[in-house]
Design a protein that fits this description.
Blueprint: H1 6-19, H2 25-28, H3 31-52, E1 66-71, E2 74-87, H4 90-93, E3 108-115, E4 124-127, E5 132-133, H5 139-158
Amino acid sequence: MPPWGPVAIKRFSECKKRRCDRIPPHIQQPWENRLEFVQDAVQELLNEDFRSGKYRRMMKFAAGEAVLVMADGLYFSGIIRCCYRVAVPPTLFGPNRQLEDIPLEQWVPTYLIRFDGFEIEQDAEHPENEIIRRIADCPANIMGMLYAHEWNTFQRMRYGCEPTEMGPGT
């Protein structure tokens, strides 16, 4: 029998019961609040270069690159069409930012995204710090892809949507 059999599961359950009073508050909250906590952590990873001063304005994504972005409350896969312009995203500078207070050098490039399976009229502009590359080459992308799958699964269960042939998170 493998080491993760019924005995290990029973031990884990007992250990979990004894330690439940030491669980941090964000873990004790409902599922959606926990996902929002992870979303904040992913966004901090995506914002890290911008906030650390390491950022140099240059194209981080190339045309044709596969990415994930949130649109209308769900994460969708898409392809970068082109670099569009520069902007001041609220996910980086906060919702109450003043454009005059932010120097032009800190503005973030935005990209036009073509969503898989949608018409060209559905293309959308997203800032660089909100785009998750679909390649597991850094912690932000790995966490971002896992988070996107969990978020989509949760939203589909919440609204009673049937999973597609690609799985429950799609």
